[in-house]
Design a protein that fits this description.
Elements: E1 8-14, E2 19-25, H1 27-41, E3 47-50, E4 66-77, E5 80-92, H2 111-131, H3 133-136, E6 140-141, E7 146-151, E8 158-170, E9 174-176
Parallel strand pairs: 3-4
Antiparallel strand pairs: 1-2, 2-9, 4-5, 5-8, 6-8, 7-8
Length: 177
Amino acid sequence: MPNLVRVWEREEWNRKKNVKTKYKMRQVYTVLDKLKEILRANGKTKTVTFGDILEVDLNKTTIYPLAHIILGNVTFTDRIMTATIQVLCLDIVDVSKEKQTEDMMFGNDNLQDVLNTQLQVVNDLQQNLRRGDAFSDNFQVITSVTAEPFSDKYENQLAGWGMTVDIQVPTNELSLC
């Protein structure tokens, strides 16, 4: 699939040069594309989605493990844009039909495996944002990253982690045409 450039363009009259200049603003696309790239590269996430989680077909078992990105508030300061982003990393909990009677700690399902694997996805993402390619691309994590476990929150007996992170990017990410 070709990589499509999605941008919002505006023209501005440059009075000093007496010409019109086109500016491309693409912060939202840049942030979403970087998060998607990091999540897909981890080898554990099969599908990355965006938007309202209720609009994702969670009954489709072929899409798991899944990472879902939700944009929150954006705060602007001098040349900096701070976006609050929530990432849900989730998978289906498989329940064994054979009842486990010896070890109730681990029970009849793979809940611990799902929580462990999805916590690793969250950790890889936050590490990449702090020190990896994302950091080199001017994505700055400015606060502590919070991850909260969940289970049975959605259909299909899903479990995983919800991560909330504040990411700073420059507001001057404008490319002149």
